[in-house]
Amino acid sequence: MEIQFPAPFLWGGALAANQAEGAYQEDGKGLSTSDLQPAGIFGPVVARQPGDFNIKDIAIDFYHRYPEDIALFAEMGFTCLRVSVAWSRIFPQGDELLPNEAGLAWYDKLFDELARYNIQPLVTLSHYEMPWGLVKNYGGWANRQVIGFFERYARAVFSRYRHKVKLWLTFNEINMSLHAPLTGVGLENDPSPTEIYQAIHHQLVASGLAVKACHSLIPQGRIGNMLLGGLLYPLSCKPEDVFAALQENRRWLFFGDVQCRGDYPGYMKRYFREQGISLQTEPSDAVALRYTVDFVSFSYYMSGCATADASEAQKRRGNILDMVPNPHLSSSEWGWQIDPIGLRTLLNTLWDRYQKPLFIVENGLGAQDRPDCDGHIHDDYRIRYINDHLVQVWEAINDGVEVLGYTYWGPIDLVSASKAEMSKRYGFIYVDRQQDGSGTLARRRKKSFYWYRDVINSRGATLKR
């Protein structure tokens, strides 16, 4: 049977403001948490000094070069581009009463440029950054006041772009706060589990209020959550390993349970009791949580294993989660295990659990792409990776899963999140910028550029099973 994706399926790519835009102090933008983490989301906070270097300050200069980049995306046939709004462009310190007009105006231009090519924007409200002023002056999401500041921000952008943006996401990879609490919820100084879950609670309440605001201000709009899809298998068929995998998967699925079902699941209430975690809540919180998302979006790069036997748990860092390596899988240059069938498994798992439309908003392969003597980049390894994952997406659709679309992570080379590397390239488009900041920033099509163009234009018919 020939592969053919449904006609409404959205094809495209995904970017984040702090990894692509640059212009970190232009047009009134305030400092964000990302601006003070030059080594990436796991790195320490480093105070800014005159003349210091953070590769994200310029990144790939998408802020000034977006017309050129969007034209390239259109050439590939994109029907969707996932971007994020930098919160500190709109509210530089986070607690202002009125938004920054220059910041709002830039995103107007971005969305208008996308509209020229009939590319639908999918917009994340908070993607691995928040205004540094909210961390410095309020203690980040530990402070209930930040809920109101986020709601003000969300309402400001919903009101401004209600005629231009119909698809929204609340928090990028919301479950990553368990592993990188500064990036996720603005907590410094090695916070305790209680402090982390209290901040997460405030963020979940804010997510519900954002859903409510979106439905009120953009009646034709849809808003989803965004999970880091950290699928774990049992390392063996021992019942203890099977249950360990169940428990580990619940650590990230819990976020989706709250955002899709409107309440804390019983297993988390037990976990809080047994760990001595007591959340400070208000009656209005339960009401806010009942504003559930319209669809579930997620990232998927790799899977891993879980085991109850600590002596076998030789963990390696993979994306944000620590995972026991799967002995049956190969790995990328960065040690991320490659598991296309895992994507089909995850799609079916989320569909069975929530019965809500799903959107794959990140999936990709980072590699050290090296131009040949003629300047060409033959990234067949990336083509194989995407081909094999998209075949499994098609299989899931045939399983009955409703999949809205696929936005490949990093359609153009950008600064990686975990360690702020330019050498870890994901794009279909090469950007001439190196880790030391050198390079012309010129764009160049890779072999995968033309391959992905053909996949989109054929609605998947050119994929190889």
From TrEMBL:
One Gene Ontology biological process: carbohydrate catabolic process
Molecular function GO terms recorded: beta-glucosidase activity
Family of the protein in this entry: Belongs to the glycosyl hydrolase 1 family.
Origin organism lineage: Bacteria, Pseudomonadati, Pseudomonadota, Gammaproteobacteria, Enterobacterales
PROSITE patterns: GLYCOSYL_HYDROL_F1_1, GLYCOSYL_HYDROL_F1_2
Any single Gene Ontology cellular-component annotation: cytosol
Organism in which the protein naturally occurs: Pantoea latae
Annotated keywords: Glycosidase, Hydrolase
Source organism superkingdom: Bacteria
One Pfam family per UniProt: Glyco_hydro_1
Residues at the active site: 362 (nucleophile)
Protein name: 6-phospho-beta-glucosidase
Entry keyword Hydrolase: yes
InterPro entries: GH (IPR017853), GH_1_N_CS (IPR033132), Glyco_hydro_1 (IPR001360), Glyco_hydro_1_AS (IPR018120)
